[in-house]
Amino acid sequence: MSLAAPGQWARPDVPGTLRRHWPLLPLAATVLFLLAPLPAGDATASGKVGPADAASLLLVLVCAVQALRGRVRALTPLGVLVLGAPAVGLAVATATAGDPYAALPGFVRYLQVFVLVPAAVVLLVHDAREFRIAAGCFVALALVQGAVGVVQYATRTGASYQGEDIRAVGTFGPGDVMGMATVVAYGLVVATAAALAPGLPPRLRRLAGGCALLLVVPLVLSFSRGAWIATLGAALLVMALAGIRRALVVLAGLAAAGVVLVGGLGVGSDMVAERLTSITQVSSAPDQSVTDRYTMWAAAESMWRERPAEGVGLKGFPAHRDGHASLGLSSGSDTAGAGQAYVRQPLLSPHNMYLLILGEQGLIGLVALAGGWAALLVAGLRRLAGAADARMRDCGLIATGLLGWQLTDFLYADIGGPSTVLTGVIIGLAAWWALTGPAVAGPLRGGPVPEGSSGR
Predict the structure, then answer these.
(1) 3-state SS record for 126-164
(2) Are strands 340-345 and 159-161 parallel, antiparallel or unpaired?
(3) What's the Rg (C-alpha) of the chain?
(4) pLDDT of 428-445, one tens digit each?
(5) What is residue 231's three-state secondary structure?
(6) Cα–Cα distance between 403 and 372 in angstroms, integer?
(7) What is the DSSP-derived secondary structure letter of residue 245?
(8) Which helix (H) or strand (E) holds 336?
């Protein structure tokens, strides 16, 4: 940003900004391309490469080119171990699968989400300002998708839920009912963390708090129990890390918004109450979706017991499901609405990422993947606790909150659908914060990049 006389606005140096930050364009596109609606039936189709996936491949390519030119940061030994170990576990699970050729697409997908994209984010993001650019894209995506979801509820053009087309799914469609809930939750966590960050300007914190309150509405209207639980857990984690006084203010605001929306305005009050009650109905009168989930969890555990070290192989759960599941498992789930006719979706995963890894990749894969995630969380918390520069705390709160959300959500969900690529971006942001060591905090209001903050 160019300098100006006191009392005058400085003119943004757009060409200079683009020259400095152009490698982040594929990263921003990976997030924002999820605004593009997919044709009906494409949300979960196997082998489909959506716009966001294509952008992530470009992100990896740009990272490779920049690495050859010596313009990326160097990874620490711990970073190499955490980001590289999953590739070894994936290779073992693919080679030992009953049909390695059938497991190969799974190998490519896991490599993209858990190795290549996170590594590219770590290597390309050079300072706090670039981190904030990436985090801001999540909020923008959440606000647009959330607005679409609210309109769907208000106009009864959403996905079918209890016989009414009112479930907010954004542009993801009824075939990926978790898509909108996931991206809205990401944006809500980022906005909450920014609202609590002591180093950000007050106006920016107030704006972030307003965004967080707005995003509560579409999250509620998604009727996604797993997203609710994960968001509550991540929000409480961020509030605890930010300080009790700040946490109480935000918690009071969120509670007031919930009372007004659900209690005062009656936004889905009966259905929200029924959905909340169903969370605790695990052993007494559970609905069929809960029964199916626990049946598939048991099937994944049974697969692991059959092959504890290496599992049944990537993409092996559907082929082995019927041989390990009880008769209580239904044939699939019903989806309709949001411009799509009635479709019966088969149950091809256990909806628990840890059990999916355990069943398909065994203990080798679980240690390589989940062990790395745990290491990132611990290292991120340690760095946040020792962060003396208040200007960097917003990055730590965002990274820790997003990773905490993802690890909690993995208890109720696994990868699948267009939003899966964002999992790789989140792991990359968490790894950037946890593993890169002290970094220069970029200016919050523009200005030249500090000397040494970028290798470009």
Answers:
(1) CCHHHHHHHHHHHHHHHHHHHHHHHHHHHHCCCEEECCE
(2) unpaired
(3) 22
(4) 999 999 988 654 444 444
(5) helix
(6) 12
(7) H
(8) strand 333-337
Sign of CA dihedral 39, 44, 45, 48: positive
Token pair in block for residue 435: 């593993």
Asked whether the beta carbons of 188 and 208 are under 8 A apart, the reply is no
The number of beta carbons lying within 10 Å of the beta carbon of residue 265 is 11
DSSP 8-state code for residue 166: E
Burial 16-46 (b: 16+ CB within 10 A, else e): eeeebbebbebbbbbbbbbbeebeeeebbee
Residue 31, token pair as written in the block: 């997030």
What gap in Å lies between CA 51 and CA 31, rounded to an integer?
10
294-337: pLDDT as tens digits: 888 888 999 999 999 988 988 888 888 777 766 666 655 656 55
Distance between CA atoms of 215 and 187, rounded to whole angstroms? Answer: 8
Q: The pTM is what?
A: 0.86
DSSP lists the bridge partners of residue 343 as 335
Distance CA 162, CA 166 (A): 9
